[in-house]
Amino acid sequence: MTDMSIAPPDLGEFHDTDVAVVGCGPVGALLAVLLGQHGHRVTLVDKWPEPYAQPRAVTFDHEIARILAILGIDSDNDPSIEYHDELYYWRNAEGQTLLEVDWRSVAASGWRTRYWFSQPELEKRLSTVASTLPTVTLRRGWLATDLVQDDHSALLAGVDSTGAVERIRAKYVVGADGANSFVRQALDLEFADHGFFFDWLILDVIPHAELDLGPAHWQLCDPARPTTIVPGGPGRRRWEYMVLPGESAEELASEISAWRLLERWGVTSANAVLERAAVYRFQARWAESWRNRRGLIAGDAAHLMPPFAGEGMCAGLRDAVALAWRLDMVLSGTAGDGLLDSYATERKGHVRHYIDFSMQLGQIICIADPVEAEARDRRMIAELTESRAEPVDTDIASLGPGLWHAGTPHAGELSVQGIVEASGHRGRFDEVAGRGWILLGRHSSPIAHLTAAQRGSWSRIGGRSFHIGSAETDPDVIDVDGTYARWFDEIGGEFVILRPDFYVAATAADPVELRESLNHLFSGMHLTAIDDSSVVVH
C-alpha cells in the first residue's frame, strides 16, 4: 500500500478531472450526478465491467425520497418504487404484537416514512441520469491499484478493462467503493469494529402472482428463528432468517434449504422464483476519520450498520449529498477546502446515531434463547399496552458538530417541507422554491435585515431569501397547508436558514440573532478572499 505521506514528485496543477469517484453504486453515482449537475468534471470508475444485477438494499426513507426528487424521481408515483399504508409490526412466536412502528404516515419532510425498491433498478436510473451529463465520465472494468497525492492533486492509478495501466489526476478522490474500500485503505483511515456480528440469510423472491403473506412488513421475533418479512420493491418480496448458533451458513443458503424455509409461507418453486439466496454478516463499523487531505470516503467505505432500521444505504446517500455541495463550493472557488472538514464531523455523528439505534434493535430481534425471549416479550407487550394510543414514530437523528449554529432551535435537524405556492406553481417547497442556501422569514423578507457585507456573502454562495406566510400577508411564498406557520410556532422564532442538503443551519428569534448566526456560518464556510471589499471574507 502506498504511503500517503510520500507524494510523487511534481504532480503539477493540471487535472484530468475535478473529482475521481471510485465505486459506481448508488452513493458514488449520486455524488457524480450532483457534481455533474453543477458542471464539474467527474470521472466515475468501478472495478466491475457490468452493474451488479442482484438485489441488495430494498428500502429507503422520506429523506432519501426528498433527495431523489432532485433528480426528477417521484417516489410516490414511480413504477419502480412502492409504499404501503401499513404499520411495521414486531410479533412473537405466538403472534402477539410486541411493537408497532409508524411506517404509513407522511413524514414532516414532506414524503412518506418508508419506501421499497430494487437496488439494481435504482442504480440503472442513476447511471442513466449520469450519462446525460457531459462532464461526467463513467469507466467500468477499471480497477484502482494505487493512490498518491500532493498539495495540488491526487493521482489515482488503475488497470482498465483491456489490462492497460492508466492514471487519473484529480483535485479530489472519493472512495465510495464499499466495505472493503481500496480508497479507505490507501488513505490509511482506520475502520473501527464495534463488536456486533450476526449472520443472516437473505432470500429475494419474485412471486408469479400476488400472495397473501399478512402484513406488508413485519418482524417475527421467534427465538427458534428470528425472521424479517418485507417487500423487495414492486413485484418482489424478501425474507431474512438469522443463522442460528452451530448452523452452517453455506448449507442454510442452499436452494433446497431456501425453499424449505419459504414453505411455511406458502411460497414454493411452483408459484415463485428464487432470485437470490445469500448469507450476509450484519456488522457495526465506522471510520474514525473520513478524510486524508485530497482523499475522502463515503457510504459503506465509511460506515457499516445492521439493517434493522433500514438506514444503511440511506446513510450513504446522505453522505453523497453532504459532500457534493461542499465540493461544489470548493471547486467553484467560493470556499477553501477547510470546508470539507465539517463533512466528516457532521456525517460521523449522524451515522453513529443510526448504527447505535440499529444495534439496539438487533439486540432485541436476535434473541435465540427461549427464556430471554419470553422475558423480552412480557416487557414489550406491557410497554405496548401502556402506549397503545400511538405507534412508535420513526427515529430522527441530528448532525454531528459542523456547519450549523448549535444552540438555535432545530439547527442540525432535517427541515420540514410543506405544500407551498409561488409564481403560479403549487407543490412541495423543494420543487416550487428550489434548494440551496435559503433564508426564510415568517413576517418579512430576511434579506432586508442583513448588513451590506452579509448580503454580498449571501449572494456569493447563491443564497436566496423568501418571506413565507399565508396569502393574506402577500408573501414571496404562500404557506398553503400551514406547515411553516406551525413550524415557526414550534421553533419560537422568526427566521430559518436552510442548507443545500435540506438541513437547518440556524434559526433566529429576531434580526440580531439572524445576523449573528449568518456570521457564524460564513466563518465556518472558509469563504475565499476576493477583491470586492463589500463582501465579508473569513
Give me the secondary-structure topology.
Elements: E1 17-22, H1 26-37, E2 42-46, E3 59-61, H2 62-69, E4 81-82, E5 88-92, E6 97-101, E7 114-117, H3 119-131, E8 136-140, E9 143-149, E10 154-159, E11 165-175, H4 182-186, E12 191-207, E13 218-221, E14 227-231, E15 237-242, H5 249-252, H6 255-263, E16 272-287, E17 291-292, E18 295-297, E19 303-304, H7 312-331, H8 341-365, H9 370-386, E20 419-422, E21 425-428, H10 429-433, E22 438-441, H11 452-460, E23 464-469, E24 477-479, H12 483-491, E25 495-498, E26 504-508, H13 511-525
Parallel strand pairs: 1-2, 1-11, 2-8, 5-13, 11-18, 22-23, 23-24
Antiparallel strand pairs: 3-7, 4-7, 5-6, 9-10, 10-11, 12-15, 12-16, 13-14, 14-15, 16-19, 17-18, 20-21, 20-24, 22-25, 25-26
Helix pairs in contact: 1-3, 1-7, 7-8
Describe the structure.
With 538 residues, this protein is an alpha+beta fold. 28% of the residues lie in helices and 27% in strands. It contains 13 helices and 26 strands. Strands 1, 2, 8, 9, 10, 11, 17 and 18 form an 8-stranded mixed sheet that branches. It has an 8-stranded mixed sheet with strand order 6-5-13-14-15-12-16-19.
